[in-house]
Amino acid sequence: MQDEHSQQNTRRLSGTLARILREFSRDYDRRVARGIQARGHPRIRLSHQVVFANIGLGRIRVTELAECAQITQQAMGKTLRELEALGYIERAVDEQDRRAKAIRLTQRGRQLVADAIEVAEEVRGEYAARIGATDFAELDSRLREAARKLELGYLPASWADDTTAAP
Predict the structure, then answer these.
(1) Which residues are bridge partners to 113 per DSSP?
(2) Residue 123 belongs to a domain
(3) How far apart are CA 65 and CA 103, in angstroms?
(4) CATH number of the structural domain spanning residue 32
(5) How far does CA 40 lie from the centroid of its chain?
(6) Domain with 95 in it
């Protein structure tokens, strides 16, 4: 049995802000993934969300997409191949650099994004119902303000014109 000092340290380590934010994020991602799957996208997995969270609605290079997602180009390439095989994205030669590949959503990919936006709003509604609408709105506002003040740069450069959009 752990002594009281060890138990206190365990609570401190497992109750950090990073851990709480990570658990919140995981819960959110799982809920959104289930909702997306229920809307006719059964083969979309959590690992695919890294693409859709960073791709935007225009074209983006694989290198920029990997950088925004903070994963290797090889890992991003694997995920993109899966999504291409499922019909959600397409690759084309980048007009600005013929050696590079640009990625964009297909019609099916744009439908997935529309479905994901609806699901995300439903999840936000679930959270607001459980936490309280006012408290949830305040949490959302404070987290966005903190991200701005800390200059976290969580949006891809190509989205820089719209930093107020809700994810």
Answers:
(1) none
(2) yes
(3) 9
(4) 1.10.10.10
(5) 19
(6) 16-156
> What is residue 55's three-state secondary structure?
coil
Q: Name the residue with tokens 């679930």.
A: 126
Q: In this structure, how many other beta carbons lie within 10 angstroms of the beta carbon of residue 128? A: 16
Residues 82-137: tens digit of each pLDDT: 999 999 999 877 677 666 678 889 999 999 999 999 999 999 999 999 999 999 99
Domain count, the chain: 1
> In this structure, are residues 123 and 38 in contact, taking their beta carbons and an 8 Å threshold?
no
> Which of 76, 29, 53, 83 minimizes the C-alpha distance to 156?
53
Q: Give me the sign of the Cα torsion angle 92, 74, 106, 157.
A: negative
Confidence of residue 165 (pLDDT cuts 50, 70, 90): very low
pLDDT > 90 in the chain, percent:
49
Number of H helices, E strands in the chain: 7, 3
